[in-house]
Specification:
mainly alpha, globular
């Protein structure tokens, strides 16, 4: 998520405002503590003009790496 947010040059707070979530939610997504629901994934893809499939695959890979690091 962070990679996509940074590509759009948005702070966590700005990104959160666009999505209608708290900056804490964005932080948790970026640290792989939680994942965005399907509505937010679709909105992230739409706002950033990212491919939803690619976004989902990369999110899954990030979660897998986070689990390995624990």
């Amino acid at each position: 998520i962070k990679k996509y947010r940074k590509l759009k040059r948005l702070s966590q707070s700005e990104f959160a405002d666009i999505l209608g979530v708290s900056p804490q939610s964005v932080s948790k997504w970026e640290c792989a503590q939680t994942v965005p629901d399907i509505e937010n994934l679709c909105l992230i893809a739409k706002v950033g003009r990212f491919n939803l499939f690619t976004l989902t695959i990369q999110l899954r890979e990030s979660l897998d790496l986070a689990k390995l690091g624990q």
